[in-house]
Design a protein that fits this description.
With 343 residues, the protein is an alpha/beta fold. It folds into two domains: 4-62, DNA polymerase, domain 1; 67-331, Aldolase class I (TIM Barrel, Alpha-Beta Barrel), CATH 3.20.20.70. It has eleven helices and 14 strands. It is globular and about 70 Å long. The structure holds iron/sulfur cluster (SF4). Iron/sulfur cluster binds at residues 112, 114-116, 119, 121-122, 160-162, 195, 336.
Length: 343
């Protein structure tokens, strides 16, 4: 019989598993602390658990997680971390430097089925869903096995894959991240980024995990979004924005719309006016990201002048809009450039 991987279980499921072994609830919390606070890699290390319980766990359970295979550093300090999974597939995470902290950008799938035309990951096609332990395992490894780990303060699910197309595993991973006995992250520090799966945005709103939501918009109208992002043919802009309007962002937090600027495609001042009209009355901010070119890309990056003009229009309409510097593009670590390629 296959052993159950404890890293794939939500806090509630770990409690149920421990109860099934006839042990008290607080033992589950102890086990999680060993895993997520002290980074234990074997049950033998968990010395606050009885020898008998450790023996049971060794017979019935495992603690498998992704292994760091390689780390590359870009000229701007961004680090691309290649992970090897148990079945030999590779995925990537990115560590992005900020002024006083680092942000970990995690993958949720190996490959991706969404087919966004501006994204290098799409060339892989879909390989498979990541398990909850493979999603959180990237963060645990980054926290405990890289020098930057102690200063990782934000997490974004924006690496390879569409997190809401791996809904159950993504939500379990977030529950592990935000539980006190799990990784203990504030839900304010965790962001899920989606290409626009409207029904799953609504579902996420009904689930009580209260994480930040970022939406990859990238076009001012359906015609262009249909071309750039096939998901738009299923959930056009009106359907997507209706789901966004209903998403219960807690407190004064804002939704984030990501907009990748591609020369001559979606970057004119008139396009910015359209975007401003689309997002009217949404409590949101915009991240403007200059397209990161990759081998064989069909698009080119917008010029600095075009980016500035686009931003000016949004600012005139009173949107918080930030131009995001392209990070790590020299090692294909930037937005939409991840392929899990060991090179
Ligand atoms: S941008 Fe995101 S959703 Fe679109 S193909 Fe790339 S990884 Fe998938």
């Amino acid at each position: 019989m296959d052993k159950i991987n404890i890293r794939d279980l939500s806090p509630g499921e770990i409690e149920a598993f421990i109860a099934h072994l006839g042990k008290e609830k607080y033992r589950a919390r102890q086990l999680m602390k060993w895993l997520y606070h002290f980074n234990a890699s074997s049950f033998g290390e968990m010395t606050t658990l009885s020898r008998e319980l450790r023996g049971h766990l060794e017979e019935t359970a495992s603690l498998d997680g992704p292994e760091i295979a390689k780390i590359r550093t870009a000229a701007d300090g961004t680090k691309k971390v290649l992970f090897r999974l148990r079945d030999g597939l590779h995925i990537e995470s990115v560590l992005i430097p900020g002024r006083n902290h680092w942000t970990a950008c995690l993958s949720s799938q190996a490959g991706c089925a969404m087919g966004c035309r501006f994204c290098f990951t799409r060339s892989l096609g879909f390989q498979r869903q990541l398990t909850p332990g493979e999603i959180t395992g990237q963060l645990t490894a980054l926290k405990f096995r890289t020098p930057e780990g102690p200063n990782v303060k934000n997490v974004v699910l924006m690496g390879m894959g569409e997190p809401l197309a791996n809904y159950e595993h993504t939500v379990t991973a977030v529950r592990i991240m935000t539980d006190d006995a799990g990784m203990g992250w504030s839900n304010r520090k965790v962001t899920i980024s989606t290409c626009g799966l409207a029904p799953q945005i609504r579902r996420l709103g009904r689930d009580d995990i209260c994480v930040n939501l970022a939406i990859s918009l990238n076009a001012p109208d359906n015609e262009r979004r249909d071309y750039l992002m096939p998901v738009n043919r299923r959930y056009p802009i009106e359907t997507l924005l209706a789901a966004c309007r209903d998403y219960p962002m807690p407190g004064r937090r804002m939704l984030t719309f990501e907009y990748i600027l591609m020369a001559g495609v979606n970057d004119s001042p008139a396009d910015a006016e359209k975007v401003a009209r689309l997002l009217k009355n949404l409590h949101c901010k915009l991240n403007l990201i200059v397209f990161n070119e990759f081998p064989g890309a069909e698009f080119r990056a917008s010029s600095p002048e075009a980016v500035a003009a686009f931003q000016q229009v949004l600012l005139r309409h009173h949107y918080t809009s930030i131009i995001r510097a392209s990070r790590g593009s020299d090692i294909l670590a930037a937005c939409g450039q991840l392929t899990g390629n060991a090179a």
